[in-house]
Amino acid sequence: MAHVVRDPDYEARVRASFARQKFMATLGARLESVAPGEVIITLSFRDDLVQQHGFMHAGALTSVVDSACGYAALTLMEPGAAVLAVEFKVNLMAPASGTEFRAVGRVVRAGRTLTVCAGEFRSIGKERDTVVALMQGTMMAVRDKQLTD
Amino acid sequence: MAHVVRDPDYEARVRASFARQKFMATLGARLESVAPGEVIITLSFRDDLVQQHGFMHAGALTSVVDSACGYAALTLMEPGAAVLAVEFKVNLMAPASGTEFRAVGRVVRAGRTLTVCAGEFRSIGKERDTVVALMQGTMMAVRDKQLTD
Amino acid sequence: MAHVVRDPDYEARVRASFARQKFMATLGARLESVAPGEVIITLSFRDDLVQQHGFMHAGALTSVVDSACGYAALTLMEPGAAVLAVEFKVNLMAPASGTEFRAVGRVVRAGRTLTVCAGEFRSIGKERDTVVALMQGTMMAVRDKQLTD
Amino acid sequence: MAHVVRDPDYEARVRASFARQKFMATLGARLESVAPGEVIITLSFRDDLVQQHGFMHAGALTSVVDSACGYAALTLMEPGAAVLAVEFKVNLMAPASGTEFRAVGRVVRAGRTLTVCAGEFRSIGKERDTVVALMQGTMMAVRDKQLTD
């Protein structure tokens, strides 16, 4: 699946849009890398992001995987298109324990309107990572609204 | 679908557990109501919860719908069981614009181990609400771990 | 959610398209009713549609709920548009036992391109139905291809 | 993710259970391979399995990917456990055109009760395959019912 880049400035565009997602700053999420069809966001454990058992809340990790998937889709869109999430599904496979996390969003298939993405939320371990959650979702290129990315 | 309550103190239990979900406080989410098989959480627009176009981030709204669904499931569990999200799927139907929002989580089927829930995230309007997102997910009763709710 | 009908011949159109879905005939599925935003398909137990424990296969019931949801979406599309499934999620809540079943597909939100649907697969009982499975999915109006419905 | 085999006869067990899934015979599906955590099922185009535009019906392909995922989960279960699908989500990425298809089901995480699987439905091409659909789902080991696999 070789990806076609339609906007040579895709990285700057993703970074600028990410900077406008104030919720990412609220979570302390950082944009680690931007490549055609793949975006990685990192997150650190914070006590104010937990659910009732002290693990990171499923919604917090979904937020960063959703952003990673959305921006992975945006890397392949032409200038002028904006990205919106249509739907996503998340399977939670292990408690989100640990101190550092990595959300990876990848494009599985980029269509003109819809892009299918696969995402992972990993707890970074000394020896190996643990996959905490898996996302499968759909992103949409919006061209007819007053939205830009 | 008449629900069977196994813990007469279900409301106090849900309220205590919600209070331990520090991520809910971070989002400014409030537990509005707790009934057998139905929990409602409210949320207000805040500029630090938005995505790049100024709407509430899909992850922020997913977080409160997930908590509403999880606690709806917990209202029907016996004392001692803890609740964990297994998976959820969210369809985003409209931009999350507005100033006040309501997340409703309802139990569709409560099994001994797994509970299927349906959730909605609504933007509260003067005349009528707009359904922003729809969730369909699975919650699990955990009995064999050192988890309590 | 009052639905807007854009094709006064929506019922004939859905019935003609359903008749071309040869897989529905293979399953013995019948189109019971077609209303704006809601389509019902019935199915009878057949021994050649079962999984290994003798219940109706999850794929068989998904097939009819998918068709019910797709055609519910089509009832609201303008003449000339064709419908395709983008994605669906199914929660299986009870074994599909029984002799007669009903799949209900309903439009939750109809957009110009994407329509969100909710579906149910019910086992029809003497006193009450049992909801066997729940679907939440997305249908797409296709206008630029050589597809018609 | 090295998988642990708990039943040395896993292949015979999967093959015997598959043979009882009469719906697979109805679809003409064949069990191609059974390995720990991975099962492949093949399917051929048949005119009686199509939707209204002449492509294979999404429900037909979901059926074989669901069986592939379920049996992938069963390869890792101990003797005596039966497998049931809890939920699955399918993204349809391309029309299911072609003459030969392959459904691959893989275990992503095997837990004591729940197993998360990833599935693909591929149209086999001369030079390369086309991924038609992607599944992410949950399978359950059932031990307390009168079900066996």
Give a concise summary:
Chain A has 149 residues and is α+β, with helices and mostly antiparallel strands. Chain A is built from three helices and six strands.
Mind explaining what this structure looks like?
The structure is a homotetramer of 149-residue chains. Chain A is α+β, with helices and mostly antiparallel strands and 149 residues long. Chain A has a single domain, classed as Roll (Thiol Ester Dehydrase, Chain A), CATH 3.10.129.10. Chain A contains 3 helices and 6 strands; from the N terminus they run ααββαββββ. Chain A has helices at residues 10-20, 22-27, 58-74; strands at 30-35, 38-44, 82-92, 100-110, 114-123, 130-142. In chain A, strands 1-2-4-5-6-3 form a 6-stranded antiparallel β-sheet. In chain A, strand 1 and strand 2 (38-44) form a beta hairpin. The longest helix of chain A is centred in the middle third of the chain and has 17 residues, at 58-74. The radius of gyration of chain A is 15 Å and the shape is globular. The interface between A and B is large, with 37 and 37 residues.
Annotate the secondary structure layout.
Four copies of one chain form a homotetramer.
Chain A: H1 10-20, H2 22-27, E1 30-35, E2 38-44, H3 58-74, E3 82-92, E4 100-110, E5 114-123, E6 130-142
Antiparallel strand pairs in A: 1-2, 2-4, 3-6, 4-5, 5-6
